[in-house]
Write a structure and sequence with these properties.
It is a single chain. This protein has a single domain, classed as 2-Layer Sandwich (Nucleotidyltransferase, domain 5), CATH 3.30.420.140. It has a 5-stranded mixed sheet, sandwiched between helices. α3 packs across α5. The protein contains 5 helices and 5 strands, in the order βββαβαβααα. 45% of the residues lie in helices and 24% in strands. The chain is of the alpha/beta class.
């Protein structure tokens, strides 16, 4: 089986997470600047097989698209253009940043480490991917 890659898109950083080859566990992959993501993914996919991209979809509390949704649409367009053979699924990302911050707070990290935004973005992407895996397995 190939891996699934998930993204928590931000205009400053993109948090990334990936599954193991059996698609059982989501693991943080780190963050990257949006301008570098296509080149990074091309190199990554030379070494690893990827069958699906999952992108966090920012929404308001009422379910309508948030202000950052237009940036995510542009990112999805970039993925489609750069990797037309890889399907893309979107998943609601409401509360993932708050869940990531709570996870970090409970983990025993020092205060300076808890405020590391890159860590929050990576954990958010991991939560997005784990949510996707749980949803997928629930539907099976």
């Amino acid at each position: 089986m190939a891996r699934i890659l998930a993204f928590d898109y931000g205009t400053k950083r993109i948090g990334m997470a990936v599954t193991d080859p059996l698609q059982l566990i989501a693991t943080g992959l780190g963050t990257i600047h949006p301008k570098d993501v296509a080149e990074y993914l091309k190199k990554y996919m030379l070494a690893e097989q990827v069958e699906l991209f999952v992108v966090g979809e920012p929404k308001q509390m009422d379910g309508s698209p948030s202000q950052s949704a237009q940036h995510v649409k542009g990112f999805i367009t970039l993925l489609k253009k750069s990797f037309p053979h890889i399907p893309i699924e979107s998943i609601d990302e409401r509360f993932t940043s708050k869940m990531a911050a709570a996870t970090i707070a409970q983990s025993g990290f020092k205060k300076s480490d808890r405020q590391n935004k890159e860590r929050v973005d990576t954990i958010s992407a991991t939560i997005i991917l784990q949510s996707y895996l749980e949803k997928k397995n629930y539907l099976l």
